[in-house]
UniProtKB/TrEMBL annotation, chain A:
Origin organism lineage: Bacteria, Pseudomonadati, Pseudomonadota, Alphaproteobacteria, Hyphomicrobiales
Native source species: Sinorhizobium medicae
One CC-aspect GO term: plasma membrane
Subcellular location: Cell membrane
Protein name as catalogued: Binding-protein-dependent transport systems inner membrane component
InterPro entries: MetI-like, MetI-like_sf, Sugar_ABC_transporter
Mode of membrane association: Multi-pass membrane protein
From TrEMBL, chain B:
Pfam families cross-referenced by the UniProt entry: BPD_transp_1
Record has 4Fe-4S as a keyword: no
UniProt KW keywords: Cell membrane, Membrane, Transmembrane, Transmembrane helix, Transport
Annotated SUPFAM superfamilies: MetI-like
Membrane topology qualifier: Multi-pass membrane protein
Subcellular locations according to the entry: Cell membrane
Protein name, UniProt field: Binding-protein-dependent transport systems inner membrane component
Transmembrane feature ranges: 12-32, 84-105, 117-136, 148-167, 204-229, 249-270
Family that this chain belongs to: Belongs to the binding-protein-dependent transport system permease family.
Organism field: Sinorhizobium medicae
């Protein structure tokens, strides 16, 4: 008897909770994140204020001034230029390299699988620590890469400490860390492609280049797009590698958005300008991430449909 | 594919060798450097012939660094401990909060669920400093600056979206029919969740947890902005260590090796899950 009443009581509780349950389950996760939304709105307010930590008494709303000043501020255009250049160069090179490596490793074999596992290691290295590793290797005194550069006639190649080669150096670290990411995604894509078109092409004796450009590449496009957008989103916000390597220097050579905002906040204590920079960066990433999410959901649906 | 000429095989071999050298060399080189003294590190031309020494590791572990000007205290082991604490606690909290939420999003298409899920995902893509800089001031008011509690909370920014989205995918892959059958037999949703859904999604949850751990461990900017020296993880600690120890290159290399070993070991251990996790489950490979 007792067990019957117990289970019916349980069932009635279930009826009440059915509508509330999903909210109850997701509420804690939401609450934690709402704590994060508040600082976001604070940053929006900061960006409309004249606010310097060194002159707290002079804090007041100046509305769009922080943004309007950017038009005549060479520092801002430098930041925008460097950020776009960094993102463009790293993602393009990583895409070409990643695609090339994925094609090399496409066939399943013990060696290929072993190499693709090994290539996970740079990706799992903290970017800030990767920058330190490359800093040791490019040290002008004993760095192995400085030595190798001198062997091919580049005496006194100063890597990250020269404004001419600083960008090249951080791009190299970025490529080292993140090319495996693109490679892994594209390799998974390549291996999931249907085999019939390739078999048909092989039977007909279609040239390899034709197969690549007319069959492989079009079928791989959704994966390439996903990988590219994902990397663009990260790359335009790059902070760890650049800050650990040069702290934005030498001079303002590498003051990308987040590095410039960090320096503005902690060094020149110009909170208003720092916040305005970050809001502009956020707007760029918001647009990119909306494109990314749409594209990604489509890819996910497709992968599910085929499975 | 079958008709590869010897020349092509050779070219492929050369290309693959170059790839392996480029991506493996830095790790190998730093690893070798960590077993050398400055004397052999500073040789020109560089050479891989040296008698290995453990003194760099000994100095890091005992916390006493011998320099020309005397003994220097280094807190690198403390940084390592902080990394372990912050990563483990953050992942535990994220699993506790994220798995039930992921289940709710996967099973119940409730009003606004997609919007909420997207909002959470979009945190993954927002510039971290946008949140961190105002947060420095809130943390001061709340008394959370430089506390483990505050750091673990803010680490949810990385861990929670990751777990939510990967685990949700795994729950969606489980047929709901099994759960209905169990429910019709008179079991509560909680025991259904615990006895049916959780075990079936187990591998996915483990994979998401491992990946979240790696991301938390590798994070740099959160602790750089919000933590002082005694609470900093290895990523920030190593950078400070480079500035402090100046020219003790062997010890810097040893510190880097100790800092990257846990994530690399985990990556090798869990490699088959990583592909799916890294793409937030976008590619079922």
């Amino acid at each position: 008897m007792a067990s019957v009443t117990h289970s019916s009581a349980r069932r009635s509780r279930f009826r009440i909770s059915k509508r509330v349950l999903p909210y109850v389950l997701s509420l804690p996760a939401l609450l934690v994140c709402i704590g994060i939304l508040i600082p976001f709105f604070t940053a929006v307010i900061y960006s409309f204020q004249r606010y310097r930590l060194s002159q707290p008494w002079a804090r007041q709303f100046n509305w769009g001034d922080n943004y309007l000043n950017f038009f005549t501020d060479p520092g801002f255009w430098n930041t925008l230029k460097i950020s776009l250049l960094y993102a463009g160069v790293t993602v393009t090179l990583e895409l070409l390299l990643g695609l090339g490596i994925a094609l090399l490793l496409q066939r399943r074999s013990t060696v290929n699988n072993f190499i693709s596992i090994m290539l996970l290691l740079p990706l799992m290295t903290a970017p800030a620590l990767a920058a330190l590793m490359w800093k040791l290797m490019t040290n002008p005194g004993f760095g192995i890469l400085s030595y190798l550069a001198s062997l091919i006639g580049l005496e006194n190649f100063r890597w990250a400490s020269s404004p001419d080669t600083a960008l090249l150096t951080v791009v190299l670290v970025d490529i080292w860390v993140y090319t495996p990411f693109i490679m892994i995604l594209l390799l998974a894509g390549l291996r999931s492609l249907p085999t019939q078109p390739f078999e048909a092409a092989a039977l007909d004796g279609v040239p390899r280049s034709f197969v690549f450009f007319r069959i492989t590449l079009p079928m791989l496009t959704p994966y390439i797009l996903t990988a590219t957008l994902f990397r663009l989103l990260d790359s335009i916000q790059q902070f760890d590698i650049i800050y650990a390597m040069t702290q934005g220097g030498p001079g303002d050579t590498l003051t990308v958005f987040q590095v410039e905002a960090y320096l503005n906040f902690f060094q020149s204590t110009n909170v208003g300008r720092s916040a305005a920079l970050l809001i502009i960066l956020w707007a760029i990433t918001y647009i990119l991430s909306n494109i990314f999410i749409k594209n990604w959901l489509r890819l996910r649906e497709r992968a599910r449909g085929e499975a | 594919m079958e008709t590869t000429s010897p020349v092509e095989r050779l070219l492929r071999g050369v290309a693959l060798t170059l790839v392996v050298v480029f991506f493996m060399f830095p790790i190998v080189w730093i690893f070798l450097m960590s077993f050398q003294t400055n004397e052999t590190i500073l040789r020109i031309p560089p050479s891989v012939v040296f008698s290995p020494t453990l003194e760099n590791y000994a100095a890091l572990i005992t916390g006493k660094l011998q320099t020309a000007s005397g003994t220097l205290d280094i807190a690198f082991m403390r940084n390592l401990g902080n990394s372990v604490l912050l990563s483990v606690a953050s992942v535990a909290v994220a699993l506790l909060l994220g798995v039930p939420a992921a289940y709710a999003f996967a099973r119940h298409k409730f009003k606004g669920s997609e919007d909420i899920a997207f909002t959470l995902l979009s945190f993954r893509f927002a510039p971290p400093l946008l949140v961190l800089l105002p947060l420095t001031q809130y943390f001061q008011w709340l008394g959370l600056s430089n506390t483990y509690f505050g750091l673990i909370w803010i680490y949810q920014l990385i861990c929670l979206p990751l777990i939510l989205w990967i685990v949700r995918g795994y729950f969606e892959d489980i047929s709901a029919d099994v759960e209905y059958a169990y429910r019709i037999a008179g079991h509560s949703w909680f025991s259904t969740f615990r006895k049916i859904a959780l075990p079936l999604a187990g591998p996915g949850i483990a994979a998401a947890g491992l990946l979240a751990f790696i991301f938390a461990w590798n994070n740099f900017v959160f602790a750089l902005v919000l933590a002082s020296a005694d609470k900093q993880p290895v990523t920030v600690g190593a950078l400070a260590f480079v500035t402090a120890s100046g020219i003790q290159y062997g010890q810097i290399a040893a510190a880097i090796v100790l800092s990257i070993t846990p994530t690399l070991a985990l990556a090798l251990y869990a490699q088959r899950y990583l592909v799916e996790g890294l793409s937030l489950g976008a590619v079922k490979g």
